[in-house]
Amino acid sequence: MRLTLAQLHKLSMPYKITENLDLSEELTGFEDIKSLSEVLVEYEIHERGLDTYWISFRFKVDLVMQCAITLQDVPYTISAEAEEIFTTDDTIEDSFIIADQTLDTKEAVLTNVLIHKPMTVYADGVSFEEDSFEDEDDGINPAFAKLKDLL
């Protein structure tokens, strides 16, 4: 969502708006994300001072990610809520700066998608057990048993 400060001043607050946001270009560098749908975002804008806005939003996106073990495609849906402050005042910590008189929520939505994206996903029926690499008898994988003699 991109709104100029002049447009924001004309709106009656709180203001609600919904949009579909395409983040495919921004997420192309993430190797574990194979594809994604458009992000459905529902915003509610509240004025919190001179050119300062508190925006709460809900978003939903369908991802196709790679299984960490088998590299198979795994569908994963992120549905979450977030709140962010947008302002022209650069002294306010943990806020997004309104640059060039335009409030743009794309970076905030992208940040929250990445925060809610899991580090790894596993295909159905696949699990990772750390002790599966150890021999039950002495705790050493037989493939590495000869290496202990080198020390």
What is the helix fraction of residues, given as a range?
A: 10-25%
Total strands: the figure is 8
What is the count of helical runs? Answer: 2
Spans of 5+ residues with little confidence (pLDDT < 50)?
A: none
Instruction: Report the mean per-residue pLDDT as an integer.
Output: 90
Provide the domain count: 1
Order of helices and strands: EHEEEEEEEH
Question: How does the overall form come out from the CA principal axes?
Answer: elongated
**What is the makeup of the main sheet?**
6 strands, mixed
Which quaternary structure do these chains form? single chain
**Nearest-angstrom radius of gyration?**
23 Å
Distance between the termini: 62 Å
Strand content: 35-45%
Label the structural class. mainly beta
Notable characteristics:
mainly beta, 6-stranded mixed beta sheet, 151 residues, two-stranded antiparallel sheet, 2 helices
How is this structure best described in words?
It is built from 2 helices and 8 strands, in the order βαβββββββα. It is mostly beta strands and 151 residues long. The chain has one domain. The strands form 2 sheets. Strands 2, 3, 4, 5, 6 and 7 form a 6-stranded mixed β-sheet that branches. A hairpin with a 6-residue loop joins strand 5 and strand 6 (73-87). The longest helix has 11 residues, at 106-116. The termini are far apart. The model has no long low-confidence stretch (mean pLDDT 90).
